[in-house]
Amino acid sequence: MRTTVGIIGAGPAGLLLARLLQNAGIAAVVLESRDREYVERRQRAGILEQGTVDVLRAAGVGARLDREGLTHDGIELRFDRRRHRVDLPALTGGRSVTVYAQTEVCKDLIAARLTDGAPLLFGAEALAVEGAGTERPRVRYRHQRRESVLECDYVVGCDGFWGVARAAMPPALTRTYERTYPFAWLGILADVAPSHDELVYAHSDRGFALLSMRSPSVTRAYLQVPEGTDAGDWTHGQIWDELDRRLEVDDPAWRLARGPVTATSVTPMRSYVHEPMRHGRLFLAGDAAHIVPPTGAKGLNLAVGDVVTFARALTTYTRTGETALLDGYSAACLRRVWQAERFSYAMTTLLHRAPDATPFDDRIQLAGLDRVTTSRAAETDLAEAYTGFPF
Ligand code: APR
Ligand code: PHB
Question: Residue 181 and residue 50: Cα distance in Å, rounded?
Fold first, then answer.
């Protein structure tokens, strides 16, 4: 098989890239190792920056997002038994975020691609990328037990952290930057209306908790737990009890509503960047190139930034023969990536309790939260990063 752009992976990065290229009249083939059902059921984060929403709309896949997405104009920080609302539009010149699950974004993009009759192969596992440094890179893959080769002009590795594309970059030319955290997030989905109409990020001496949502009738919540925790280590009752303790405030109006838990999961916490994001005609996008801890809600939004940058660069090259944007892909993406890495790291260390935290560390965190909630400059910095940097 032969195509212009071989895309490995049908997560948000690969699917959106395929859509952007399709709209620009550039042929692509998407190879996805899992089946469609698995991809559409996978639970991930659910906060879309304003810029991400704008991109999805402009790409013609924003109809259901506009109907079902929940626009949020604020987040709440909780610490020291206090509540503080960060007013996002007031601090950022009108920017907000939208709650719409990543898995719904994927469903919309898959439906659009299949409606277009454009190639998207499920159950197609990329085995290796070859010839990245040549004019004709190839993806070797296995589909329906047969090995084949996809010959391309460009290959984009959108195959997530565990994918194969990154390995095709010569180690001598690459460098990775990494930090792991000694905790993870235990997440639940529950059939109960969210107890608050905006997201609540809570610092407590028992660790971090996050109250989020998927819809007006579905709560999503997370607890900081020790690294290596198994979701089965906690009963649903224990999870609700712990959320209750960590979200406690001196406000008689506050109450955590409980309901049936329909799913639990554990998310490890990691910061990771692979540089550069391009070698020859192989480009990396999304989790294949970088991971952020979920505290800043940046993973999906970074993936969108990468593929918008690639699509714009290739479209410009196709129309004008100008290669500057393709050549500058890695540098342009990495600038944004490092801002998101910085923010995600800062939010994570501000809100989580490390297992070896000293009383000094606790006081420093509280001083940091006090700063964010009393200095308009500090609060604006948080609001700008949370609502997203321009693409
Ligand atoms: N061949 C084909 N497909 C592969 C291969 C392979 N060898 N390896 C991985 N994949 C697929 C995975 O099954 C998955 O569907 O690549 C896809 C990668 O998708 P994601 O992990 O969702 O990564 P990405 O699209 O970069 O999305 C960005 O935002 O919220 C964050 O981390 C979260 O996934 C999210 C990310
Ligand atoms: C989520 O709803 O899954 C979510 C929200 C905010 C975050 C991370 C995850 O920072």
Answer: 29
